[in-house]
Amino acid sequence: MSYSIGDVVKKTGLSAHTLRYYEKEGLLPFVKKNASGVRAYSDEDLRWLTMIECLKDSGLQIKEIRQYIEWFNEGDSTLSQRLSLFENRRKILEKEMARLTVVMNKIRYKELLYREAVRVGSLDVATNERRLKHLKKKLFESPDDFDKVTG
Amino acid sequence: MSYSIGDVVKKTGLSAHTLRYYEKEGLLPFVKKNASGVRAYSDEDLRWLTMIECLKDSGLQIKEIRQYIEWFNEGDSTLSQRLSLFENRRKILEKEMARLTVVMNKIRYKELLYREAVRVGSLDVATNERRLKHLKKKLFESPDDFDKVTG
DNA sequence: ATAATACTTAGAGTTTACTCTAGGTGTTCG
DNA sequence: CGAACACCTAGAGTAAACTCTAAGTATTAT
């Protein structure tokens, strides 16, 4: 099976502009064109687009994805480089998730603080409630200046 | 206590450029200047910078942070808007963490696949190993095209 | 006193990943 | 056969968040 750029737009949700841009950036080196220069995407190309989406979701930049595809095309001699890439990415994702957990607690505290402030009609009153002060301590293992902010 | 922009650079790790940029964008409406126009940051200003960092970490854009600060300055009449902001942010962070969990599993599979490929010296051989095929099933609850990609 | 350093402003430049425009060619349908 | 539509390329424009430059003033150290 082969697909026009319009077909791929429908399948992937990417714009035709974006698909051509990806190709220009070296992310789709396998896409064939017919005699009049019209792109014909294969199922393999669609699977690469799925892979590209995953790599983008993991935070890779386009030039890093291009590097990965180049390594893939060079074959088994680049296996260790590709392993490093995924190792690093996994570590970065772990850090990112840890970071988000910390931020989440701070935002959750603010949400509860403002929920109470709305209930009693005053931010100052809510901020000084024992229950919320206690919650603050519970949510922030390592307190920083954050808990002094009144906003 | 008050601090020069250089002091704040050392304390926060932000550049002087960035601090002035934040001020221009309305994120630091309280910073005082002396007779010759030199900024003197207060402890309150430093706490706002901590708050701004948290909001940025949670994914808010600068204009959204400015909006929040404007609401803060308007007092208790904007409590419900601020509550909405934190509610939305919490929901977005939850989605983001769920997204990262999915991506993490895919990247972890790739890492293990390439670790094995490096060990045996062949991506094709590793891809066809029963152990890794089984792992793939375990990691991806809802299989998509991803598991067909060989790269 | 003078050199170095820190500060000021306005505004231009950078990066990333698109996103769109202009001007044109090719294909399909009634 | 001609209108409508999909496609092509090259290149310009956009948004966000900085990042830096230029040209000048003020402060500090020797």
Short description:
Chain A is mainly alpha-helical. Chain A has helices at 5-12, 16-24, 43-57, 62-74, 79-120, 123-127, 130-139; strands spanning 2-3, 32-33, 39-42.
**Radius of gyration of chain A, rounded?**
24 Å
Shape, per Cα inertia axes of chain A = elongated
Relative helix content of chain A: 55-70%
Protein chains sharing the most extensive interface: A-B, 47 and 47 residues
Main sheet: strand order of chain A: 1-3-2
SSE series of chain A: EHHEEHHHHH
- The tally of beta strands of chain A, per DSSP, is 3
Question: How big a fraction of the residues of chain A is strand?
Answer: 5-15%
> Uncertain segments of chain A of ≥5 residues (pLDDT<50)?
none
Tally of helical segments of chain A: 7
Mean pLDDT of chain A: 90
Report the major sheet of chain A: 3 strands, antiparallel
Q: From the helix content, strand content and strand pairing of chain A, which structural class follows?
A: mainly alpha
Please render the helix and strand layout as text.
Two copies of one chain form a homodimer.
Chain A: E1 2-3, H1 5-12, H2 16-24, E2 32-33, E3 39-42, H3 43-57, H4 62-74, H5 79-120, H6 123-127, H7 130-139
Chain B binds a DNA duplex (30 and 30 nucleotides) through residues 4-6, 15-18, 20-21, 25, 33, 36-39, 61-63.
